[in-house]
Design a protein that fits this description.
Length: about 850
């Protein structure tokens, strides 16, 4: 049968159905063509599909009209296809009643919107002004995998949609082979109403099901419309058990103030101790964001204070209820132009508050500078950056939550590191600049810095040098204050020969001015001004080589060498070592002119550094790489040795650079398949002993099974260090001997193994080999599919920081697709 090619020009009809997450839009029909394409009018702008807003494209086997009814039909086995307003509609039959303004699509109806959401129905019927509409056997699937089904969907008005006998699930409803499956989680309701004015979805007689089994019933239930990015309401709770707190339940509630501001109130209710109120405020500005998070409780301290095991707390005074709180806030602003600035404000009234209440993620890097694990930082900073320059100005202070003297018998009586022993830094300035063009055929870089540090309490090694550390008691001595201004210029030029040999000569000059005050009495002077300088000339040489084998394997050798000559070091013992205490030798730092991370220590004299990297690449993206290198110096540098605080004559080398031969640096990685990868790094001294090492291996097997194994060891401190520390429980008594030995050896394991279907087990653990102790461990039962993850297990925390000693109990973790996961913290709920 030949198609009817008559053209119909009638008033427009806009068809739309919104139900749950569905949006059904049938664009205005002003001109309908029976041909396979409709040309746009000259004054209209065509969309991506070539159609103007007032045009529709039909592909039908039969297109006819009887009176006021226009019908598009198909042969058996075929379907009508229509395109309009970037939507695609497929159905067995589509009719439009011109007199009543009523459009109907019937028979295997399917509509896809521009976002990829799909709507199914056996019948769709709407009038032209959206005042009424019906969908029978309604079902929709959104791009995030959620599905919504209903026996009927009725559009009561322009803002209210009603679904009867509806089911909503964020989980897949079909298997990979197309067969149906019972969704893991679903909500079934007698009636669902979407109110576009309230921007909410209301349920009547809602039944929550897990695996098709009813587990919870609510006569009335509501949640925000899926079109709402954020809305006030309850979030997934966090349920936990701790030996000190007992059963713990934390229920977050989100309060949305505006599109750019919200509050998160999250009270933690505990069975054995007073509750802790957590709150978070977030505000987004035109050019920045501020996030402030805090907590408060009025409670008695709790923990293990029994030293002799007689069941009585061995504290000087009875523990009283006190105001306890914490604040973790940060902000960052980046207005137009080269300047940006920010701040962090991190403080807690109780050094054990985070541990006792299991506060999530209290140690985060949110500013220009960051405190390491168990140290909080409050800072204010500003940065200016252009294509050729950089400037930063900052000031910060630290609060330490580290244990200085551990009490193995009563962890509640641990002695913590004094905040007065940490410096106040104000200001800290760093500046860099380089000219736009080459200088003498090479690149010139200028670097300047300045810092002022103030300490209230005396600190010995490794801040002070051996010649400055007083003998005897240091109690009551003030901390050393220091100020520094440094300037540095570096020039480099790269020359590559035709054979591929790369030569890079360089010149580096540097000058420092120090002002120190409150020196130890043995120096005979309270303050001093010290100047020093260094000049370095050198040459970097590298010659990469590549060998290609017949099977497609590549072998790349990259030998690198550096020869540098500097003036002799002038390391005055009166200058405190504030910024160069820790040096991690690796492939990147081995060839630096200044291998120390800061300015207080630097190298001089004649030095030769050499290393090579071999990389093997073969099919499937597999790779193995190994680097070996070390540095040789003409003279030893005893100033790099660090003294034992109570025995200054005993010294050790934490840097690996004090001897004529540095530690060997060995670093490698391997990826033998797309399921296994590993990385390793080690520094080995001249005797062959490992000073530091880290090895990590990650593996995946099956579809979701995975595991990770990490080994970490640090033997850089071969001597046991003891330092006198005042006893806060008996100030008049003798000081406690504080252990400063930082040697450690850990093994960390994490594994996830599925046993049957979506059921599996998970285990994590950290073993302290130095103390022969499992510090943290978890073993749990796991259920995980595409939309639901549930963990139930047992955990034990045996870290010495916890005031209650080892903690063990049951944990529950729940993560739901679409609804979010359990937990608390800025990292868990982002904009």
């Amino acid at each position: 049968m030949q198609r009817d090619r008559s053209v119909l020009n009638r008033r427009g009809l806009r068809l739309r159905l919104l139900a749950g997450t569905a949006a059904i839009l049938l664009g205005p029909w002003v001109t309908v063509a029976a041909a396979r394409a409709q040309a746009p009018t000259p004054d209209a702008v065509a969309g991506p599909d070539g159609l103007t807003p007032q045009a529709a494209y039909f592909d039908a086997d039969i297109l006819g009209r009887q009176g006021d009814v226009v019908t598009a039909d198909s042969y058996p086995g075929g379907r009508v296809m229509a395109r309009f307003q970037q939507h695609t509609l497929r159905a067995d039959t589509v009719t439009y009643d011109l007199a009543q303004g009523l459009a109907t699509a019937s028979g295997n109806t399917q509509l896809v919107d521009p976002d990829g959401n799909v709507v199914f129905a056996s019948l769709l019927e709407l009038n032209s002004d959206l005042k009424a509409g019906i969908a029978v056997d309604f079902a929709t699937r959104t791009t995030n995998g959620a599905s919504l089904m209903a026996a009927t969907a009725v559009r009561r008005s322009a803002t209210v949609n009603e679904l009867n006998y509806a089911i909503f699930t964020p989980c897949p409803v079909c298997n990979a082979d197309g067969s149906t499956r019972t969704p893991t989680i679903s909500i079934q309701a007698e009636q669902v109403i979407q109110d576009e004015t309230l921007r909410a979805i209301l349920y009547r007689n809602a039944v929550f099901k897990v695996g098709g089994v009813p587990v919870f019933y609510l006569p009335v239930f509501a949640h925000p419309d899926p079109t709402v990015e954020r809305a006030s309401g309850f979030l997934v709770p966090l349920i936990n058990y701790d030996a000190g707190r007992g059963l713990s339940y934390e229920q977050p509630y989100l309060i949305v103030v505006s599109p750019s501001e919200d509050w998160l109130i999250s009270p933690q209710i505990n069975a054995r101790v007073a509750p802790l109120l957590n709150a978070q405020w977030r505000r987004r500005f035109t050019d920045g964001t501020v996030i402030a998070r805090g907590g408060y409780t009025y409670a008695q301290n709790f923990g293990d204070f029994d030293i002799d095991g007689d069941g009585i707390d061995d504290t000087i005074a009875p523990l009283a209820e006190e105001h306890r709180s914490y604040l973790l806030a940060h902000g960052r602003f980046d207005p137009d132009g080269p300047w940006r600035w920010g701040f962090t404000a991190e403080r807690t009234s109780d050094k054990t508050l985070f541990d006792r209440y299991d506060v999530v993620s209290p140690y985060q890097d949110n500013g220009l500078y960051y405190g390491d694990q168990r140290r909080l930082i409050s800072q204010l900073y500003a940065e200016r950056q252009t294509d050729r320059s950089y400037l930063s100005v900052a000031a910060f202070s630290l609060q330490s939550l580290r244990v200085a003297v551990a009490n193995q018998d009563a962890p509640g009586l641990n002695i913590f590191e004094s905040d007065n022993s940490l410096p106040l830094v104000a200001p800290l300035i760093d500046a860099r600049w380089e000219p736009a063009g080459p200088m003498f055929g090479g690149r010139l870089r200028l670097h300047g810095s300045a810092v002022a540090l103030f300490r209230d309490t005396y600190v010995g090694g490794p801040v002070l040098r051996p010649d400055v550390i007083p003998t005897g008691s240091t109690l009551g001595l003030p901390g050393i204050d220091s100020r520094r201004i440094s300037g540095q210029a570096e020039w480099r030029r790269i020359v590559t020969t035709a054979a591929g040999l790369r030569w890079e000569p360089f010149i580096d000059v540097r000058a420092d001015i120090y002002s120190v005050a409150d020196l130890p009495p043995m120096m005979g002077v309270d303050s001093a001004t010290i100047t020093r300088s260094r000049a370095t000339a050198g040459l970097d040489v590298s010659y990469p080589l590549i060998r290609r084998f017949a099977d497609g394997t590549d072998l790349v050798l990259e030998p690198v060498g550096q020869l540098s000559l500097s003036t002799h070091t002038d390391l005055d013992p009166r200058i405190p070592n504030e910024d160069s205490q820790t040096l991690e030798l690796d492939e990147s730092s081995l060839f630096r002119v200044d291998r120390f991370p800061g300015q207080d220590l630097y190298e001089g004299g004649l030095r030769l550094t050499a290393g090579t990297r071999a990389t093997l690449n073969w099919d499937g993206g597999r790779q193995a790489s190994l680097f070996i290198g070390r540095s040789l110096r003409f003279e030893e540098e005893p100033a790099f040795l660090t003294p034992v605080p109570d025995a200054p004559a005993q010294r050790y080398d934490p840097s690996g650079l004090a001897a004529k031969s540095s530690d060997w640096v060995v670093q490698g990685s391997f990826t033998p398949s797309d399921r296994i990868r590993g990385w390793g790094h080690a520094t080995i001294d001249s005797s062959g002993s490992i000073r530091r090492a880290e090895l990590t291996m990650d593996g995946r097997w099956g579809r979701r099974n995975q595991g990770s194994l990490t080994y970490i060891v640090d033997r850089s401190d071969p001597l046991r260090q003891l330092n006198p520390y005042p006893n806060p429980f008996d100030p008049a008594g003798p000081p406690i001997q504080q252990s400063l030995n930082r040697n450690y050896e850990f093994v960390q394991l994490a594994v996830q193994q599925f046993i049957q279907g979506n059921w599996g087990v998970t285990a994590t653990g950290i073993v302290d080999l130095e103390r022969d102790l499992i510090t943290r461990s978890e073993v749990g039962l796991l259920f995980d599919d595409d939309c639901f993850r549930f963990e139930l297990g047992f955990r034990r925390d045996n870290t010495r920081v916890r005031p209650s000693g080892p903690s063990e109990g049951i944990y529950v973790r729940l993560n739901l697709a679409t609804f979010g996961g359990s937990g608390y913290g800025p990292s868990d709920r982002r904009w």
